[in-house]
Amino acid sequence: METIQVGKAIRDLRNYLRLSQKELAEGICTQSLISQIEGGDVSPSADVLYKIANRFGVDINYFFDITDCPRLDYVQEVFFQIRQEVRKRNYRSVSKMIESEMSNPLFQTKVNQQFMLWHRAICLFYIHGEARKSLDLLKQAIELTDTTSKNFSERQIEILTSTAIIYSEIGDFKNSISYYEMALFHLKKRPVVQDKSIKIRILYNYAKTLTTTRDYQGSLDQVNRGIKLCIEHEIMCLFGELHFQKGKNLIGLDFIQKGIQYLEKAMLIFELEGNEPFATIVSNEIITYTNVG
């Protein structure tokens, strides 16, 4: 086991998990020693390596077999592809990807198991309609992170959002709203948020649930917050969907013409994005409400 190779593996995993050297070293060794190990200057003792492995949530054998494991950028690419397919609602494709990686050693780490469990739960609901099993898996996924009830990770917050969405899908709006509020609460407590789109996704899905319950004004408030964030951070994520939802809420509040204007903005955004299916849906909505008006 080469010192430089082990040091690089530790550094890559630490960066991947977004831990500082100080956070990794706490209760194990000094930050200086972590720096030396990552730099390949010293080799960690068996005891220190074991504790580092536990901190990462990986088996200590990971460091002995690292040359046979895929690189972390491969894991990140798989995660990216899964998230892309989820947004396209290609749940069967997601399920196949998860199945194909089940035996991959790199996906046995706690953090990677959490990601896979989260998306297995989503597939279980949308492919098989098994809400209770899906919610149980989401709960297990949240508990896989070594955080406390006071400091949820960004991924845990995303899992809370998935839980809220499923509760909304089955008509349990009370629990759904509770989980959206919980997600926003924990997101607000984070000192730094790496993924600025997380809050936008929470606000959009929260708004959809409120619209379903006919709380149009409450939904409109969430939509306006989401649109503001999109503009502030120059993020197109859900920009069209938020305008569509704003139009629906305004129509629900009897501001028909103003609502149609926002539906038209949404259609334009979808057309610019090349999202013809959504543009067609919005176009049909505009025709419907124009005729009603």
What does this structure look like?
With 293 residues, the chain is an all-alpha fold. It has helices at residues 3-16, 21-25, 31-38, 46-56, 61-64, 72-87, 91-101, 110-128, 131-143, 154-169, 173-189, 197-212, 216-233, 239-252, 256-273, 276-292. The model has no long low-confidence stretch (mean pLDDT 89). Helix 6 packs antiparallel against helix 7. Among the domains are: 3-68, Orthogonal Bundle (434 Repressor (Amino-terminal Domain)); 72-195, Serine Threonine Protein Phosphatase 5, Tetratricopeptide repeat. It has 16 helices and no strands. It comes from Alkalihalobacterium chitinilyticum. This is Helix-turn-helix transcriptional regulator. Residues 10-63 form the HTH cro/C1-type domain.
